[in-house]
Design a protein that fits this description.
alpha+beta
Length: 181
């Protein structure tokens, strides 16, 4: 990771001890598609989809309801000076990133921190997806490229010398017994 930046270890939404389910059942509001509303959002989506294209996974589509959820949580993190996953998560996947030090972070650098986890990625079923033996070392990357995720919404909030990026994914990834792609 770049000095002055931290990605929060993601938490799996579904932990399965038996055989994998035929499909995840989560009662969530369907994504409401909309084009990204500003240049930062457009660049965040493009950074996600460039990596997905490299892995042969279909592109994500922007969802305004996911962006709204992400914005509320990013504002909470900036306002409380905390860095942790949303305990509610609303049935969606979540990636978090924070940077500090008075510099301006580009959307590509923020998402690039998650993509850099690919160096430790091992193509296997979740949670056996890391060369280090710890899925959390690659959990941002696997969520970003999770084949079954079709929509994303992200928000960046800045206060003082700190920025927070929160992204929400639907359907969520990092499901035990399944492959990212």
């Amino acid at each position: 990771m770049t000095a002055g930046a931290v990605a929060c270890a993601p938490t799996p939404l579904f932990v399965q001890t038996g055989p994998p389910p035929t499909r995840a059942v989560v009662a969530v509001e369907p994504p409401r598609e909309a084009p990204p509303s500003n240049a930062v959002e457009t660049r965040l989506l493009a950074a996600h989809n460039a990596e997905r294209a490299r892995t042969g996974v279909p592109p994500l589509r922007w969802a305004d309801n996911l962006e709204a959820e992400a914005r509320v949580w990013a504002q909470e993190l900036i306002g409380s000076n905390q860095f942790r996953h949303d305990p509610a998560q609303h049935g969606h996947g979540e990636n978090l990133w924070t940077g500090w030090g008075g510099r301006v972070w580009t959307p590509e650098e923020m998402v690039g921190e998650w993509i850099a986890e690919k160096a430790e990625y091992r193509h296997d079923v979740f949670p056996n997806v890391s060369r280090t033996g710890k899925w959390s070392d690659v959990g941002h990357y696997t969520q970003l490229v999770w084949r079954d995720s079709t929509h994303v919404g992200c928000a960046v909030e800045t206060r003082g010398d700190r920025s927070v990026l929160a992204c929400r994914y639907a359907p969520p990834g990092n499901i035990d017994g399944r492959r990212a792609y």
